[in-house]
Amino acid sequence: MEPVYRPERVEREAQAFWDATGAFRAVEIAGRPKYYCLSMFPYPSGKLHMGHVRNYTIGDVLTRYYRMRGYNVLQPMGWDAFGLPAENAAIANGVPPARWTYDNIAYMKSQLRSLGFAIDWARELATCKPDYYRWNQWLFLRMLEKGIAYKHTGVVNWDPVDQTVLANEQVIDGRGWRTGAVVEKREIPMYYLRITKYAEELLADLDKLPGWPERVKLMQANWIGRSEGVNFGFPYEIDGERKLLRVFTTRADTIMGVTFNAIAAEHPLAARLARDDPKLAAFVAECKAGSVMEADLATMEKKGMPTGFFCTHPLTGARVEIWVGNYVLMGYGEGAVMGVPAHDERDFAFAKKYGIPIRQVIALPGKTYSTDEWQEWYADKEHGTCVHSGKYDGLGYGEATNAIAADLKAKGLGDKQVQWRLRDWGISRQRYWGTPVPLVHCAKCGDVPVPDHDLPVVLPEDCVPDGSGNPLARRAEFVHTACPRCAGPARRETDTMDTFVDSSWYFARFASPDAGGAMVDARVDYWLPVDQYIGGIEHAILHLLYARFWSKVMRDLGLVKFGEPFANLLTQGMVLNHVFLRTDEKGKRTYFAPEELDIVHDEAGRVTGARARSDGRPVEYAGISTMSKSSRNGVDPQALIEQFGADTARFFIIFTSPPEQTLEWNDAGVEGASRFLRRVWSLAHELSAVLAAESRRRAGAYAQYAYPADWAAQHPQLAAARREMHANVKQATYDIGRQQFNTVASAAMKIYNALAAVPRAGDAAQAAAPLLHEGFSILLRVLYPIAPHIAHVLWRELGFADDPMGASWPDADLQALETDELELVLQVNGKLRGHLRVPKDADRATIEQLALGHDAVAKHADGRAPRKVVVVPGRLVNVVV
RNA sequence: GCCGGGAUGGCGGAACUGGUAGACGCAGCGGACUCAAAAUCCGCCGGCCGCGAGGUCGUGCGAGUUCGAUUCUCGCUCCCGGCACCA
Q: Which of A36, A340, A484, A672 could disulfide-pair with A257, CB 3.0 to 4.6 Å?
């Protein structure tokens, strides 16, 4: 055995063994308990970053742990291979997205392999391959047939210079990322998926997911956003026609306080009124500037313009002026909202700004309403009652809402309605690198679906986007086609699908990656649902909601039997790093990687600024955020792996923080992980003769260790070491169960420390041989899920039977933990004043007696008599005086 | 702006159901070994007062509940994630 730990040799040896034995191939075995462990597949951005290492190490720890527990485990891997970065790379380098993507996949796969993850690579898939995305197209056509997919207009970010649609990410402070031009909103035709049809079920089924973090379920529930209210209309007449301005409100009880209504700039009525009013037309045009992002809309200054046009209050018959507001969005509900300044904080601010009347209609006992300043209670619907509201005066929120809804219904103007915040999923992208939408546009037949037998509609792989729109639309041989219905000349749809489509069902395809004639086959019934899904908390809403929706659609089509794809979810905290950038006069940002800079810190060690090494000029510090390719703050694990080995990288990332916690990257401590593994190796080497002999004596067995009855009494030091080992096995098992893996790594270190403290000079090692053997069998098995290469190689070197993946996880021997005496903490008035040794079976009265007789109690009681004695069994005594 | 989460020594973190705050590790300091350095090994290591025994303060800030609060409640501050076309 090598005297010194050489990670590269150890890792080569272990990986060769796993490859040769096909150790990670997952085969369906009827009757054996299965465990499908899935980490979110990566976007092939170029190289792995620490977030990937963290994600996949967590998955691998669970995969190997469940293998040791006897489960038939599947851990697959694939590539979320369509997406915007490939097009950005093409704009920058002229390399076709396909080639860039495949090159990145090859490199990142080699990195994943070097980390030794127990992945079944035979199931690898890439979403940019036709045999995958053809099923996106196929299911889209099924949704079209069922009315789940439909065509409708939608608003997008438009760069007027590049004449192209921009992603939200490409809009910086309201301007296009490349041109610096002010972005406009533009309405275009799009395809939508009717996720709102499933809103009720998506919300209700959250209760069927006890294995999901509460915070994720809460975020999803809030996102879906069920609210009960009233949908009703304000009658108006225009061009000789009677119409209704429809609004939805959850505060129908305040309807008598309506003093204005606001409509979106895109509302048909706004367009109509602007026709006769140049000032309004200018305002409507102004509202079109800026992005469509919710965060922008919510933070921008609320502006409005009166139209001079009035509708009628449905209950009072009063005239209510209609305003156009830049904060009202078409596509949210009806594109119109009623304005009740007295009882809505935003309406209040808007009314004060524009001098719109504020009319109090809710009162609280003991409170005085004033229009001078907004008060929290103005919006209180729990305790308020109606005032200045005629027949509704004195009613509370529920009664008033019911009465008003009934009156509106009687007039045929409205009714109660359940409204969802969730909107339908727009999947059209005016981009090249994605799944082609399988439709053909024919002048005679309209939008015609591509027949199933013509799928897939294959995306040409040699286009090079240049930032000025979709190159697919300029590819004549793609665009020009024959209408499947009338065989006449027709145009292919050139929009592609949102990449969230790709990731909405890949977990099912892993069960049957080679199914040629179907989306999935019977093997999904064996593996699905996923037993443990692991991925970043940033996916808490969108990806997970879309995957849940897609699964329900597949279920309703009879393709799968499950309605919820992920039984248990572990949301990993983000790995963060500092971000540095420069912004030019056009607002264009250039990011700098930390290694390109000299970083300036203040006395407290905080980053205050930096200079680029290349030109010595200052660079702006933009705080810390998620490691990403776009902000160039990713840390490539390659250097770490090359310098210290995969096991050190894995051990370090696990040890440094619990999985769900946000992690600010800092590699101080990597040395410690490396040192620990070297120490384990050195101790194994030092004891290899003793341990190998013990292994031979026991024929490699590691499950049962029996010690003579008087062993503990004879060898108190060894018994203490054994107690420490088993206490930590217990701890590690508990912690792995609650997915706190950093303390599993700590437990491994503590087991090592106990083992290293066992006397082993001269003949002592011989005397302690059984304990050392037991201790190593425990240490290597606890270590195995985290640092499998070294554990695998040492396991075999020391002569243990099997290999550690086939070995069972150690059981704590609870008898080894028992002691005759306990040490209790002694408190006086809740402050630590001493310790108390008591027999382990001492009763309450005895403990109280011992406590009251303790010197520290007399000293700190200051002559006062004890009023109360609190005894917490096995822990502490608190004497209250 | 809205939704969700976080804050504990110089640093990463531990503390299981309200019960010894700081496990384990990093950095630092002192020592051993060495011609020397690295590596390795041993010891110390929250602040303040004290020679010491010990005392006292201390888990982002401010209140509260409790015999006892890092843990529960209320109100703040700052940071992170998401906000529907980054993935």
A: A340
